[in-house]
Design a protein that fits this description.
single chain; 348 residues; Nitrilase/N-carbamoyl-D-aminoacid amidohydrolase; 12-stranded mixed beta sheet; 9 helices; 27% helix
């Protein structure tokens, strides 16, 4: 797919974006959908035109496998799977209708159920209620692999045109995958939603710095600076009750209530708005203008004046693979074997 887009950043129109910091309704599909709708309505009432949600906000991020053995985790994951959301479902239809009624563009983070498998998914929904982009995290992180599958090739196409600019979406540590980010930047995002897990202060329980809220937020900040785009870092809050529900109590990496670090960054990396308290729900707002992007990219445009594609370039294989493929010589034989046999009982 050729990526020869060159969006205009000259518009001086000012509009409001919203980054969500909220606690999911843990392991409750219907409750999570209703809370998503309530947040959309509140953000729209406050004038937001783009609303970003955390990673797998429906039905919540499962830190559980990181914090427990499999015996404890299994019961939680069974309930988790039962409350994941299908892309084509009445629940998604409710969210799409809510986006339409709110007249916003939203990036929804959800655990997607497809058959018996789960994926870390995002859906970008336009003000007309149509899904402009559906993608899955291309590589689940560490223990996430015990719960979620890999995203397919279509998931690398993660920037779409909206009424308020080219909007991108990333999940968690996709922020630190260099080749994936190069492809992301080549699609010329002007705004992006960085969907995140709940994460806690550096050094909590001797946890690695890279899993902290500070590190996570800085990853979104870095993508904003590299790509010359506005970045919305959106994350969960975990209450004491939520921690008990997800079997997280007592794990040394966590402190409850907490987990929040929602921040909105400018294309120069500046902090435009930030949640006041990591343990309190808040919709964070910022007024932005795409004209700010030109101010940054005239200095460094990594897909233009600050690049050397003659020296470095990324090769992309962006085509989905089918589960079954036959080589040419075997195709006809396979088709013949697959044909239904009529009148099996005839002649018996």
């Amino acid at each position: 797919m050729p990526l020869n887009l060159s969006p205009s950043n000259s518009s001086s129109n000012v509009f409001k974006v919203a980054a969500v910091q909220a606690e999911p309704v843990w392991l409750d599909l219907q409750g999570s959908v209703q809370k998503t709708i309530d947040i959309l309505q509140e953000a729209a009432k406050n004038g937001a035109k783009i609303v970003g949600f955390p990673e797998v906000f429906i039905p919540g991020y499962p830190w559980t496998p990181w914090a427990n053995n499999f015996v404890v985790t299994a019961a939680v994951l069974k309930e988790y799977q039962a409350n994941a959301m299908a892309l084509h479902s009445p629940e998604m239809d409710r969210i799409r209708e809510a986006v339409k009624e709110a007249d916003v563009t939203a990036v929804i983070g959800f655990a997607e159920r497809d058959g018996a498998s789960l994926y870390i998914a995002q859906a970008t929904i336009l003000p007309n209620g149509k899904i402009a982009n559906h993608r899955r995290k291309i590589k689940p992180t560490h223990y996430e692999k015990t719960v979620f599958g890999d995203g397919s090739a279509q998931s690398i196409y993660n920037v779409v045109q909206t009424p308020f600019g080219r909007l991108g979406s990333l999940n968690c540590w996709e922020h630190i995958q260099p080749w994936f980010k190069t492809h992301f930047y080549s699609q010329h995002p002007q705004i992006f939603v960085g969907a995140w897990w709940p994460a806690f202060p550096p050094g909590t329980g001797d946890s690695p710095y890279i899993v902290s809220g500070e590190a996570s937020s800085r990853m979104t900040q870095m993508v904003a600076m590299e790509g010359g785009c506005f970045g919305l870092a959106c994350c969960h809050v975990v209450s004491v009750q939520g921690a008990e529900k997800m079997k997280l109590s007592g794990f040394p990496w966590f402190t409850f209530p907490g987990g929040g670090f929602t921040t909105i960054y400018g294309p120069d990396g500046s902090t435009l708005a930030k949640a006041a308290d990591p343990g309190v729900e808040e919709i964070v707002y910022a007024d932005i203008s795409l004209s700010k992007i030109d101010e940054v990219k005239i200095v460094a445009d990594i897909m233009g004046n600050y690049s050397r594609f003659d020296l470095f370039h990324t090769v992309v294989h962006g085509v989905n693979w089918d589960p079954i493929a036959y080589v040419d010589e075997e195709a006809e034989v396979a088709r013949e074997k697959a044909k239904p046999v009529d009148n099996l009982a005839s002649g018996a």
